[in-house]
Amino acid sequence: MTASCREVCCVKPRLTVSELFERGYRRNRAAPLPVEGAQCADTDGNTARFGLVIADGKIARIGFRATTCATLIAYCEYVAEIVSGFSLEIAKELTAAELVASVPGVPPLKQNRAILAIAAFRAAVVEVQYPPTEQVTDESRLYLCHAAP
After folding, report:
1. What residues does 55 pair with on adjacent strands?
2. Cβ–Cβ < 8 Å for 82, 64
């Protein structure tokens, strides 16, 4: 990322799932941020959604909402900690494999939660880069009200 080797493991020290869960549980309950990405879900019923505040082209604040899977909350918290202060171009390069490598102690059965966390983060980045356009009104209904005899 910003380190000379650009690897996630060089940016922050490795933290355990329980440490990340404790921090993430508080962030998970915080109020939503102005720009939120689409909610992403996996086949197990877990969901995640990130919110961002961008200032000067960099991530100024980040928050998330995730179901109560300790691993998912830990992964989301790690994403939130690692990308704060980065530009969107650098932050969106974070991969699920780097996330799994950076958070030790996750059983192989639950490592797929990293894919969900990355997908939710990238959905928020897309929302920032390509904000939704105004809704188009359905004008066809107007013509039916005044139909010719």
Report:
1. 58
2. no
Exposed e or buried b per residue across 77-95, where buried means at least 16 C-beta atoms within 10 angstroms of its C-beta: bbbbbbbeebebeebbebe
Whole-angstrom distance, CA of residue 47 vs CA of residue 39: 7
Q: Are 52 and 128 in contact (CB under 8 A)?
A: yes
Tens-digit pLDDT profile for residues 109-146: 999 999 999 999 999 999 988 877 655 555 555 555 55
Going by the DSSP 8-state scheme, the letter that residue 110 receives in this structure is G
Structural domains in the chain plus CATH codes:
8-145 (3.90.1010.10)
List of E strands, 31-115:
35-36, 40-41, 47-55, 58-66
